[in-house]
Amino acid sequence: MKIGVFLATAAFVFSEASAFSVPLGSWGRYDSDISQLQLTIDKTESIIEQAAEYFNDSKSLLSPHIYSLWESLARDHPDAVKQALSLSKPVKTSPQSNWLYQVTNDQIPNRKLRIKTPGELGIDSVKQYSGYLDIEDDDKHFFFWFFESRNDPKNDPVVLWINGGPGCSSMTGGLFFELGPSAIGQDLKPIYNPYSWNSNASVIFLDQPVNVGHSYSSKPVKTTVAAGKDFYAFLKLFFQQFPEYSTLPFHISGESYAGHYIPAFAREIISNNDDPNRNFNLSSILIGNGITNPLIQDEYFEPMACGKGGHPAVLNPDQCQFMRDQWPRCKRLLEVCYQNPTALACVPSEIHCGVIKQPFRETGLNVYDMRVPCGNSSLCYVQEEWITEYMNLPEIKLAIGSEVESFVGCDHDVGA
Ligand SMILES: *[C@@H]1O[C@H](CO)[C@@H](O)[C@H](O)[C@H]1NC(C)=O
Ligand SMILES: *[C@@H]1O[C@H](CO)[C@@H](O)[C@H](O)[C@H]1NC(C)=O
Ligand SMILES: *[C@@H]1O[C@H](CO)[C@@H](O)[C@H](O)[C@H]1NC(C)=O
Ligand SMILES: *[C@@H]1O[C@H](CO)[C@@H](O)[C@H](O)[C@H]1NC(C)=O
């Protein structure tokens, strides 16, 4: 379980692994452009001292091994190192009023749930709630949107969905593209989805980390992932307000990078099994297409892209060789990370292992389906652009209570 927890810490650092980050991200391009890059990091301090300060981890400084990792990374991947040590920009926000409920609990200080009913947007006719979990002392605000089951809400399970990201919204991915009650057409009108998960379950879509989708922090942030404790507080307050769902089977689901977060969130819930005030139970977790163990998974990008995955090679032999050549260093860095699960020990692997995927990114093929190109859309799927446009319509933002001035479906600044 420790692994799950540290990955949740390290995961915010880079937008990675999601197709949405491929064509937009400057991430990954540093490798070929090193000569043109200007490292603005102050040279008077060693890179690891800056990293230790950034990640508030002076203990790791004592390890000569981690020390040398950072020095060599700063040499080989200066731009990525610089990105890893810069705060994400604060998101511009405009507060909303007219909340239907403001839910607090004396046992959960500094946490508040603000809730609206989005009502008649035509996305579904079922009961809906949306709004924010506020972490008041930390100025973090996590957006959620709930759709009741179309079938039998008194008995159907409750499923919470988290998208991968770390920079992608659960609204862009899960809600409007993959499994929610409606898609969004080119005319920005909802298109009913009869196969939505809420045909047989009540579904909560949650935007995290902050500064993704409608979630935000008005301060620049580095640790952007909802801590297990924030997540636990969200569930307690939600089920406190809506006790009619609290005794139903409850599941946490997600994909891609959520493979990092979900085990950590489940662990938090289970570690609170003795909490006499817990008002819900966890039935299961579901992770689709998850990035859960890069020490095993990262080695297989190469065979997949080079003809050994059931599809002809999409890379040339030199590119395949390059990927194979990068793997041993990636593996060593991952081992350091697994042995010492701190950001300071793990970010080097995040930085270097990304290099392995670079040749594939340069092909412009869809990382989710390598048989097809991404096409003209910078997000690989043109539907993602319609969703982003829809989510930015003033009347939609007002209805759901969104406080971000500009909704970004996938944000490459998050944690980068
Ligand atoms: C840094 O870490 C120390 C010890 O772990 C902790 O007490 C302190 O609050 C942290 N500072 C910040 C800014 O997070
Ligand atoms: C799912 O919902 C449909 C439509 O209401 C219903 O016919 C079906 O029995 C439900 N399936 C389950 C497993 O509850
Ligand atoms: C959770 O499970 C425990 C043990 O089975 C049970 O006693 C409790 O009533 C359940 N809580 C809810 C809210 O369903
Ligand atoms: C992509 O854009 C080009 C130029 O604007 C256009 O000719 C082409 O039809 C577009 N392709 C797709 C698949 O939309």
Automatic annotation (TrEMBL):
The gene is PRC1. Residues 1-19 form the signal peptide. One of its GO terms (biological process) is zymogen activation. It holds the Pfam family Peptidase_S10. PROSITE patterns: CARBOXYPEPT_SER_SER. SUPFAM superfamilies: alpha/beta-Hydrolases (SSF53474). One of its GO terms (cellular component) is fungal-type vacuole lumen. Belongs to the peptidase S10 family. Keywords: Carboxypeptidase, Glycoprotein, Hydrolase, Protease, Signal. This is Carboxypeptidase. InterPro entries: AB_hydrolase_fold, Peptidase_S10, Ser_caboxypep_ser_AS. The keyword Protease applies. It is an enzyme of class 3 (hydrolase). The keyword Manganese does not apply. GO terms for molecular function: serine-type carboxypeptidase activity. Its EC number is 3.4.16.-.
